[in-house]
Structure formats: structure tokens, C-alpha cells
Design a protein that fits this description.
Layout lengths: L9 E5 L9 E6 L8 H10 L1 H9 L9 E5 L7 E6 L10 H18 L4 E4 L11 H18 L5 E6 L2 H14 L7
Parallel strand pairs: 1-6, 2-4, 2-5, 5-6
Antiparallel strand pairs: 3-4
This protein binds ligand AR6.
Length: 183
């Protein structure tokens, strides 16, 4: 697909990702896949803590930058793709490449499982401290690059919990996709 056309498949919205009926939502997990706070906690509660923890235990953890899949259980989404973002430590520890890898690997796992619609939260931008604007630019650019090569994915939605984050992301997507049709 032409690089300019992939932006029509990328959407941003404000809200709670656990409410989305996508083929998969992505979880900002930790490397033990043990559950936690933030979006991870919300996903575990909405999916059903015990069944999701049991499914995660079978996966044997997940490296930073990698992604693994489980069913969505009680979620409206059919699957959960768990990815582990980098803890931001100043930017000189490979954080940008690791964060890009989270998006790439999550999309690869989605494609391998023939999933067509996928939704991401803003990985690493909460407890893990990644500066929001830099992280969002990586998220959008990495996804756009992936979609050029993988036409079967139909829609990628970025879900921002807070209004300020959503507005900031709107400005970033406008800047990165000048030819975007906003109608
Ligand atoms: N829907 C969408 N986005 C949300 C939701 C929600 N329901 N809840 C929070 N966010 P964080 P991280 C946003 O801290 O930085 C966990 O304990 C939030 O506003 O959830 O990758 C894990 O177990 C922020 O923008 O993830 C790990 O130990 C974004 O989700 C660690 O936190 C990510 O914030 C991972 O930290």
C-alpha cells in the first residue's frame, strides 16, 4: 500500500480501551505478565482477573519490546496482545527502538493471527515514564510503516485515556499525515 494511503487506516480516539470491540486490544504489560496498575489493571479486571492470569502464566513472561497473545475473555475485544514497553531512563538506553519494537511486534502478532482491527493504548507513557509526544510519534510512524507492508490489517485505533493526551495526539497525527482526509 502506498505510504500516503495507510493513514486512512489509522484512527485516534479518547476513552477506555477495555470498552473497544476490536479483534485485539493491546495491553501495556510488565515482563512477568503478572498484571499491575494502569491500563494493565483495567484490562485484567474487565477480562476477568483469574482467567487472564491463568492464560498469562502459560506464556512464561515477555521480553521488553516483544508481544504475546491471549484470548480477550469477558472483554468486547476477541484477543489481548500483551506487549512490554521500556522503562524510560533518559533516552540513551535504546528506549526508542524498544518502544518501536512493541508496536511492530504487536502488529506482527495480530497479522499472524489474521486479525484485522487492533487498538493500542499509549504504551510506556504512564508508570514507565516515556515522554508522551515522543512516544506517540514513534507509535504512529511505526504503525504507518508496518501498514505499508501488511495490507490485511484494516484499522489501527490509538486510544487515549485523557483529553489532554488525545488533543496532543491529534496535533501529532495532523503533522505526520499532511495528506490525511479528516472528513
Ligand atoms: N484505557 C486506555 N488507556 C489507559 C487506560 C484505559 N482504561 N488506563 C490507563 N491508560 P500505564 P506503562 C493510559 O501506566 O507506562 C502497569 O502496572 C494511561 O493514561 O498503564 O506502559 C504494568 O503492569 C497512559 O497514557 O502503562 C506495568 O508494570 C497509558 O495508558 C506498567 O504499568 C499507559 O500507562 C506499564 O507502564
Amino acid at each position: 500500500m502506498a505510504a500516503a494511503d495507510v493513514w486512512s487506516k489509522i484512527k485516534i480516539q479518547q476513552g477506555d480501551i477495555t470498552k473497544l470491540a476490536a479483534d485485539a486490544i493491546v495491553n501495556a504489560a510488565n515482563s512477568r505478565l503478572a498484571g499491575g496498575g494502569g491500563v494493565d489493571g483495567a484490562i485484567h479486571r474487565a477480562a476477568g482477573i483469574e482467567q487472564l492470569q491463568a492464560a498469562c502464566r502459560k506464556l512464561g513472561g515477555c521480553e521488553t519490546g516483544d508481544a504475546k497473545i491471549t484470548p480477550g475473555f469477558n472483554l468486547p475485544a476477541q484477543h489481548i496482545i500483551h506487549t512490554v514497553g521500556p522503562v524510560f531512563g533518559g533516552g540513551q538506553r535504546g528506549e526508542a527502538e524498544l518502544l518501536a519494537s512493541c508496536y511492530r511486534r504487536s502488529l506482527e502478532v495480530a497479522a499472524e493471527n489474521h486479525l484485522k482491527t487492533i487498538a493500542f493504548p499509549a504504551i510506556s507513557t504512564g508508570v514507565y515514564g516515556y515522554p508522551f509526544e515522543a512516544a506517540t510519534e514513534i507509535a504512529l510512524r511505526t504503525t504507518a510503516e508496518f501498514l505499508v507492508e501488511h495490507e490485511l490489517i484494516e484499522q489501527v485505533t490509538f486510544v487515549f485515556f485523557g483529553r489532554v493526551d488525545f488533543e496532543s495526539a491529534s496535533a501529532i497525527i495532523e503533522r505526520l499525515s499532511p495528506a490525511r482526509d479528516n472528513s
